[in-house]
Fold each of these.
Amino acid sequence: MPLVRIAVRQGKSAAYRRAVADAVHEGMVEAIRVPKEDRFQIVTEHDADGLIVDRTFLGVDRSDDAVIVQISLRRGRSVELKQALYKRIVEKLADGPGVRPADVLIVLSENDLADWSFGNGEAHYVLNPPQPIAAAA
Amino acid sequence: MPLVRIAVRQGKSAAYRRAVADAVHEGMVEAIRVPKEDRFQIVTEHDADGLIVDRTFLGVDRSDDAVIVQISLRRGRSVELKQALYKRIVEKLADGPGVRPADVLIVLSENDLADWSFGNGEAHYVLNPPQPIAAAA
Amino acid sequence: MPLVRIAVRQGKSAAYRRAVADAVHEGMVEAIRVPKEDRFQIVTEHDADGLIVDRTFLGVDRSDDAVIVQISLRRGRSVELKQALYKRIVEKLADGPGVRPADVLIVLSENDLADWSFGNGEAHYVLNPPQPIAAAA
């Protein structure tokens, strides 16, 4: 169910972009039990004037290689699950494409079950609600 | 009032992109009575690594030509209206640009009347609230 | 905390894009007291088929040079603060890059404190909540 928008710096390889997308998805699968097949991502590239991040806000040491991840997902994950999600995404991004943890900004936007159509014009989660949200592992 | 972001696969014609945007808007006008003139859309093109959709999630048979539609709109449409909206957008996309119904992902994000400024720095809907949301046709 | 997506028309100079981003940020700093360092923006360029705005909706006289600003920010600003924000952003955009006030569409999406990670996988505002939202100046 999540729709994920990932903004990366221009000039990286296609393999890097793919690894970033993979890492973000794996983080979601592992931390908040998103089904492996529930993957919908938009990855965009931006030059320095198109991806502007402060270098020090809240004491985080950001670089030119910032990655911004905006996730739309259904309402209801606990604060603990969200914390686990941030931690896992950042670990995966460090392990795979080698993104520095300080360079990962993550923002969530919650909506409701009726706000999703996965194809064929159906509101899938109205008739067949997904699994209840699991507690943190 | 809606702001609509539409992501399509790169390499299609300008006519295709325009027909996709037209179809989404017509679906909104017909299904949830958005005024014809209330049209604000951002259409982006993405290569295969930039627009990632699972091919089978929830049993929907998606292809390379997936279209992702993310709609920001004011809170309050009923579940029935949202279902009608998905159905109509998908019909319009099939009729016009010929998008396969299985290839259309739609996600809604609701906000409030004070969250919109349509120009000149005014919060138009604070002073002049729009029509109440109509029931499904 | 805000994440700001700004869509401008293609074919403008890098200086114009930067001035637009600066103006939007200054408007947020001045009107709703976002910290100066709390700046995270994604600026994208679009051709005429990629940035579609109605020319007259609600009596606003829009042109080819429309700018769409979508701001994700934490829940809780009053209607008065939002009105002040729209007004200030539009003034700054007129003063700096010379954007016509009628050409500025602004949309807000609110979320919660736990929905933000500013790096290192931390949910910064869970452990260290930001300043309470100030009243309008």
Note: Residues 3-127 of chain A form a domain with the Macrophage Migration Inhibitory Factor fold (CATH 3.30.429.10).
Amino acid sequence: MGALDLEKMEPYDLATTVLPGMGREEQLEFLASLPPGRAAETLEHLRPDQQYWLLHHLPEDRGREVLNEMSSDAAVDLLLSLHPRQRSQLLEWIAPQYQEELRRLMAYPENSAGGLATVDYIAVREYWTAGEAIEHVRKVGREAELVYYLYVLDAQGHLVGVASLREVLLADPRTPLGELMKREVISVPAQADQEEVGRILSRYDLLALPVVDDAGRMIGIVTVDDILDVMEQEATEDVQRLGGVQPVAEPYMEASLGVLFRKRVGWLMALYVAEALTGTVMRHYESFISQVVALAFFVPLLIGTGGNAGSQASSLIIRALAVGEVTPAHVLRVIWRESRLGLALGLSMGAAGVLRALLLGTAGSIALTVGLAQVAIVLWASLAGALLPLLGKKIGVDPAVFSTPLIATATDALGLIIYFEIARLVLGL
Amino acid sequence: MGALDLEKMEPYDLATTVLPGMGREEQLEFLASLPPGRAAETLEHLRPDQQYWLLHHLPEDRGREVLNEMSSDAAVDLLLSLHPRQRSQLLEWIAPQYQEELRRLMAYPENSAGGLATVDYIAVREYWTAGEAIEHVRKVGREAELVYYLYVLDAQGHLVGVASLREVLLADPRTPLGELMKREVISVPAQADQEEVGRILSRYDLLALPVVDDAGRMIGIVTVDDILDVMEQEATEDVQRLGGVQPVAEPYMEASLGVLFRKRVGWLMALYVAEALTGTVMRHYESFISQVVALAFFVPLLIGTGGNAGSQASSLIIRALAVGEVTPAHVLRVIWRESRLGLALGLSMGAAGVLRALLLGTAGSIALTVGLAQVAIVLWASLAGALLPLLGKKIGVDPAVFSTPLIATATDALGLIIYFEIARLVLGL
């Protein structure tokens, strides 16, 4: 590939297709040959350990330049992932005032608005004219992460308004920003969760959201492209949690088997311990099974269907909680909805259960037992599936932890008790 | 709430908090009182049936104005959701040239780049200077969905370059766009799937992505805020599919019980039919259970753990497929990884199984049976959980359909056969 092609390539492609094909020395040479801003953008698409290795092994003045060109949110992510000794070394490379800003951002949790914010936004004053503001954008625009919103700050750094570059461009150049700006700025506190940030960006169709501290002073902005990355990451974690896996940071094909084993065996064991209760229940009803072996035939079907019904309810509620459609305050209404739904679904499945039992040639009384048990188990599983995530949310546990495997496991033991107790009543065991 | 407050409110808030509190007549009066652009933005946050009702009942000239102010992607969504008669009525309100553009966009599938595209972008010519381009933005900027990218088209409408407003502002006003623009434009074909569009936007940190037809002519742009909405919608559908629910379009608390019932009962029944196979398997081994009732104690534990292991593997692979980390071409490597992982997990769970059996006071030979069966079942479930979504992808079925409930159900029957066959060998039944 010629030098010309490389010059035109996107930083993402340089990081994901060009660099991986090079040896380490070659990577260093290549990065040193790029303009520092482009080298910084390329680095931002690598893993933190790779970023550090490259910065550390570049000629020091070069490494400094590249680090200072990185956007502040990327620099914060890198610094936070380093060993404290490496971190202080890199921090020394950064100009004192910028260093202070980075230290402030580093204090916010990684998943918060503050942790995602970049300080490379455009700040303007209320008394500037539109023409002056455009001059300012021309001057500082190259450093900024996003030039399309001009944030109006007062002398103490409080966010008092926002003007879009579009409005400023469209206006008469002599108009003061105070007349153009919107005073009702949509902003988030630094502690806001990243999902909340994404929701607000999407709701109000914004390209960036300003982040303020408790006193209303501007800390930085979160841009929509960072939120896209965050949403993809969150979706991955949710799907993995729903499958009963602790979130795995690396791509599946790159994660070591040891990591994948550890992320899976913990939950598998925890669920096993819970599921082991079913053995105790079964043994408790040993005499029932000895007397009517046919009862055992329906155990997998009954509890499997219960698990499926619970998983349906939990997936609906987990997602509704995630997008804010349902809150723990809705608990009574959720109970009322799932009671009716669970009963309707239970009756359908119960009818199927009776049919299945008769088809297997079992006695009518056993078929009746299976049918009644199926109604009760589906009802119970639907309620448990809906309520456990709500409970989790209430007590501050990620609702996605109440994954399908957990719901299935949690409903199995009681499902069996329901089954055998109905058998006792119907069959007179 | 005073008129002043309403004037400052965001369209989203008008649509979600102000309008729902009004009667229909009041809604019409309120919309008629808004500037048409603001009324259009507010409408875009309502459901299509509500949009149509309001447009239809506004004074006709007012309705026309508002409809023509809607962004083209929102107008397309609305038109597509209407009855053909209503659709032609609304189309008549639209200026002929714009009408033609809308008809072209309506031909693309809803989930494709073409279906999401808006035609309200800024088109410029290569020979214009930076200064002329800024003048153009000033003139047409108010109509555009996004003014921050200037798309350079040739006389036939082919997309030949893109310049960011930032670059154009920073440049000398006399520079021709041909010198400022990037000729390697990242674009997508109109048929591209919306997930692909999201991936490209996020990868290259873009605010909008141009959509071109097969001949490279520009059709429109997809903006990042539309993709945020799409990603949220897709995440909801994935979570619901993973839980074994057909995607529900309405929010959980608003969906009717009838809809929720239908979205759930279909899968539940389908899984039931599959799960019913377990009854046949159990009956086939009836004599084993009669001879050694203790064998039945471990059935829920063994197949439950198998289901959990399968669900872990499937959630990892489903997500890796969704983000493009794994493709069906990786099938052999996935088999090799999951064989080793499944074996390691199986051995761990098998050891736990032996322990559990001994704790329940069962004979050593039964404990051995349970342990061996657990190893084999976990191995088999891990492989099935990983391979079924890959197979789905290969044959064009959404991998998320291979949900946890489906994997659990699919692995139960063979899991039981494995268990009883091991029992035959070990116990000599």
Note: Strands of chain A lie at 122-124, 149-153, 159-164, 188-189, 208-212, 218-223.
